[in-house]
Amino acid sequence: MTITTRTLSKLQSYFEIKVEQIKDSENYQKLHALPLLKRWATLAGLFLLSQLVFFGLLYLFFGKVVVIGFLASILAGLATGVGALPALFFKVISRNLFNSMLGAAAGVMLAATAFSLLMPGMTYGNLIWPGKGIYIVSLGMVVGAAFLHYADRQLPHVHFDSISDVQLSSLKKVWLFIIAITIHNFPEGMSVGVSFGTGDMKNGLVLAIAIALQNIPEGLAVALPLVGLGYNKWKAIGIATLTGLVEPVGGLLGITMVTVFEPVLPIAMGFAAGAMLFVISEEIIPETHSKGRSRYATFALMGGFIIMMILDNLLS
User: Fold this and answer.
1) Backbone φ, ψ for residue 256 (5° rounding)
2) In whole angstroms, what is the distance from residue 216 CA to residue 211 CA?
3) pLDDT tens, 127-162?
């Protein structure tokens, strides 16, 4: 067992203890005793109040762009839940359809990486270090890919191609895959935050749309195996949605970091691009080619790339 695995086990035990302590608390018991409608209304009110305070503090300390960027990363993350909704009606979908969805996601991510991260990153790099922007961004790409490589090696999980059949028999295998999706969502959220951190709202919006589109098949890939294993359909959708909600954490980190420390912007954009390219090459494209039916995915990838390229041009 690696140090990272032991640390994760300790964190899991810690959170389980804390959850039990919350359930035993007086306030939780009072809330649980309320009628169902009143209970949910109370929770909704507390949530909205907390968001009002949180976004107000963000606006006060960092300004409007940070608030909009963080909100965009939340909406992009919630797209995993939208993608999981077909699990309400199906336990299995066509292999060709799923490959096409993943291929289109890869095309969207490739276009977003090129037009919304690498090209602006080189431009900002040249403004800060004239003539050296491409090298600064390249360094960031290597660091981003190395970070994902390290996470892949250290954290226990399985890859897309290991769960290509949605009729799975191993609950542990599904949860390891969910960990993998969660790991890879962090740099995606960070890329949205970094993009908004440039102050270019158009570029940030394009990238947020790209990440949201890419998250749709990921949400389906998480929810369908859980439903197939007997999970409640709404619970499976909730778990899929939660895997995407790590993106706002990465988004907030990315946007505040480059807002406060402007010189790291081109490196951060390169980092996000390298991490996204790693996910595309390591996970998504191999999965779409794993069963010998790659032609659908190939054309879908080209379609996703073209759509994202057109969208970037229309919003420029």
Assistant:
1) -70, -35
2) 9
3) 888 888 899 999 989 998 888 788 777 665 545 444
Residue 211: which pLDDT band, with cuts at 50, 70 and 90?
Answer: confident
Query: Tokens representing 258?
Result: 């480059």
Q: What is the pLDDT of residues 288-304, one digit of tens each?
A: 776 666 788 888 889 88
By the 8 A CB rule, do 192 and 207 touch?
Answer: yes
Average the pLDDT over 63-74 and give the result. 81
The CA-based angle 94-159-246, given to 5 degrees, is: 95
| Tokens, residue 164 | 């290509």
DSSP the chain: --HHHHHHHHHHHHHHHHHHHHHHSHHHHHHHHS-HHHHHHHHHHHHHHHHHHHHHHHHHHH-HHHHHHHHHHHHHHHHHHHHHGGGGT-S---HHHHHHHHHHHHHHHHHHIIIIIIHHHHHHHHHHSTT-HHHHHHHHHHHHHHHHHHHHHHS----GGGG-SSS---HHHHHHHHHHHHHHHHHHHHHHHHHHHTT-HHHHHHHHHHHHHHHHHHHHHHHHHHHHTT--HHHHHHHHHHHHTTHHHHHHHHHHHHHH-GGGHHHHHHHHHHHHHHHIIIIIHHHHTTTS-HHHHHHHHHHHHHHHHHHHHHH-
By percentage, how much of the chain surpasses pLDDT 90?
2
Give the pLDDT score at 167: 42
pLDDT of residue 25: 79
| Cβ atoms of 154 and 2 closer than 8 Å | yes
Query: Of 241, 278, 224, 279, which Cα lies nearest the Cα of 95?
Result: 224
